[in-house]
Specification:
By secondary structure, this protein is of the alpha+beta class. 37% of the residues lie in helices and 25% in strands. The protein has a 20-stranded antiparallel sheet, with helices on both faces. A hairpin with a 2-residue loop joins strand 16 and strand 17. The longest helix has 17 residues, at 6-22. It is globular.
């Protein structure tokens, strides 16, 4: 494959690394090796600690088991054959097959992003090839040869006993690439501001060879250590992936490259965003009884200020409302002190627009339309519980996922009064409808002629159900909700799937009370996308046929679908069990946990 310019080399190498990352699995070590050799100014870090168990772990996941289903194999085979054919030119020029290319990573794969107030951006890459060291060497040789063909310059030097190659691409004024292969290990990167910053990569090589480092490493950084010590759930199995970032430090490096970025950094303290300490995420696909566990940690300074202090989270119960249908595909309940939250929003808004601006420009307009004082009459009457849910409206279209918003009030009279105020503020666009013993209000909007046929027209609906204010964008969904209200035994709260997820949430939370509860059915979402995008007559396949070249991988997918090589969706749905999530708000910040249950198959 002939690269047309130097940027293509970087993009191509990045795609390879992303692919390797997606199929990597960790051995569960606390600190990846790369963190011990990358500098402490590493502002972003992505690591897959080990790939040795990747195949086993991936094949045991719901996606892995689905991908190896005998009924799906003909489709997968056709797509893989198309990939191999598309890579024939690259294999001819490089001598490396697609299969050999993907097999290069055998151990750890880590990527770091170095940045500080005195150091502009440097991208670092560490990769362990194991027994595929020879293929790794051939790949690096090929990249250097291509750079030379395109008019770039390549020179070599020795760092310790390692040959360090420096690439100056022809069309890059500053960016310089450094590549080194030390046996089965690859260490390299890109210095975006010139050769002076290549010293960062040289120091990484020296640490890997056991030489004394001039500064501390990422593994010694306090923020990184705080992240590792807060990983509680994924550590129940093997850690498959780690992500760590210090957003403010990333911006500091940008400031050294572009002085105008200093203005952005100066605004952050005004918004309180300088209190965003760091962000980290961990994932495991190998926890007994689970399909996966993913956790995200957002570490915040204490006390919080400005924007970071806006959500006034409360703790509550995650049992769904009695009228939420069992058939919903996603359900989220969050607890928040709404009067305090709105007050904090007003303070930030007024800080930019002037004293009383939020009242004049936002609240007064709402009060005028509703003929209610939102701050005095509505917000104090809320319990702080807000629910969002999605339900699939048929026939399946691109936006078949209809949504509902539910706000719990302190009593039924307040909920009714609020809905009546909404109706009275829109008397020409809302009409009353009776459904059984209950009533709701629906928008009178008509479908415009220009509206796409493959799109569902959202139609706002409102109702007061006991002490709850309910708003949806689908009359069909509203009527499903009203039917469930009269038959609560068919509600989500009574479903076995939800009870299983709720039990896992309690087990994960322990003594901590969550502020947010999540339930989802990936099998139902898969069915919607399957029907909307993968049917023989879907607009997606028509678009690929129209725009893709005849020998593309996309055309292979289209042809395989048309040939009936995709099995019925029910074959694939059986691999997916419900998923859940929770949010814990504590003194260190916000901690999100997402998990999938593992379905037992015969």
């Amino acid at each position: 494959m002939q690269c047309r310019n130097s940027r293509s080399l970087v993009k191509w190498a990045g795609l390879v690394l992303v692919y390797c990352t997606l199929y990597s699995v960790a051995q569960g070590q606390d600190v990846p090796y790369a963190a011990k050799i990358f500098p402490q100014d590493t502002a972003a870090f992505v690591s897959i600690p080990n790939i040795a168990d990747a195949k086993t772990a991936f094949l045991q996941s719901s996606v892995g088991r689905m991908a190896t289903d005998p009924q799906l194999r003909p489709f997968v085979t056709d797509v893989w054959d198309a990939l191999i054919k598309a890579s024939e030119e690259f294999e001819k020029e490089s001598g490396i097959s697609l299969k050999a290319l993907f097999a290069i990573p055998q151990g750890e794969v880590s990527v770091g992003f170095v940045s500080s107030s005195s150091q502009s951006w440097v991208l670092l890459v560490y990769l362990e090839a194991g027994e595929n060291a020879e293929t790794l060497g051939k790949l690096v040789d090929f990249v250097c040869q291509q750079a030379t063909k395109e008019g770039g310059k390549v020179r070599t030097e020795r760092v310790e006993d390692v040959i360090f190659r420096i690439l100056n691409p022809e069309r890059e004024e500053k960016a310089v690439i450094g590549l080194a292969v030390d046996g089965p290990r690859f260490i390299g990167g890109i210095a975006f501001s010139g050769e002076t910053d290549l010293q960062i990569i040289r120091n990484v090589i020296r640490r890997a060879k056991g030489s004394a480092a001039e500064s501390a490493t990422l593994a010694e950084q306090k923020k990184f250590q705080q992240f590792l010590s807060n990983i509680r759930y994924a550590k129940q199995g093997q850690i498959h992936g780690l992500v760590f970032a210090d957003p403010l430090q990333i911006l500091e490096g940008f400031k050294t490259m572009n002085p105008s970025a200093a203005v952005t950094l100066a605004i952050l303290p005004v918004l309180g965003l300088d209190g965003l300490n760091s962000v980290g995420a961990a994932m495991s696909l190998d926890v007994a009884g689970w399909d996966s566990i993913r956790e995200i940690h957002i570490f915040l300074d204490n006390p919080r200020r400005g924007v970071l202090n806006i959500p006034a989270f409360k703790k509550g119960d995650g049992t769904p409302e009695f009228f939420i249908p069992e058939s919903v595909v996603r359900y989220i309940t969050i607890y928040m002190d709404l009067p305090v939250t709105v007050e904090r929003i007003a303070q930030i808004y007024d800080g930019f627009r002037g004293e009383g601006a939020f009242q004049r420009q936002v609240l007064d307009e709402m009060n005028r339309r509703l003929q209610l004082d939102v701050v005095r009459d509505v917000l104090p009457a809320t319990t702080g519980r807000v629910t969002l849910a999605q339900w699939i409206e048929r026939p399946i279209r691109l936006n078949s996922a209809a949504g509902v918003f539910v706000m719990e009030m302190k009593d039924e009279q307040i909920a009714t009064k609020f809905v009546e105020a909404v109706v009275q503020s829109n008397p020409q666009t809302l009409e009353k409808k009776d459904f059984g013993q209950r009533t709701y209000y629906v928008s009178t909007r008509q479908r415009p002629e220009w509206f796409p046929e493959n799109m569902r027209l959202p139609v706002p609906c409102f109702a007061a159900i006991d002490q709850y204010v309910v708003q949806t964008d689908s009359p069909a969904f509203m009527e499903q909700i009203l039917m469930t209200a009269d038959a609560p035994e068919k509600s989500l709260a009574e479903s076995l799937e939800y009870k299983l997820v709720r039990g896992r949430i309690k087990a994960l939370a322990g003594t901590d009370n969550p502020s947010l509860f999540i339930f989802s059915r990936p099998d139902s979402v898969l069915e919607m996308w399957y029907e909307a995008f993968l049917s023989k007559n879907s607009f997606m396949l028509q678009a690929i046929e129209r725009d893709a070249p005849k020998d593309s991988v996309g055309m292979a997918i289209v042809q395989a679908i048309k040939d009936g090589k995709l099995p019925p969706v029910d074959v694939l749905k059986r691999y997916f069990a419900p998923q859940g999530g929770l949010l814990i708000d504590d003194a260190t910040g916000l901690h999100l946990v997402f998990f999938g249950l593992r379905k037992k198959l015969p």
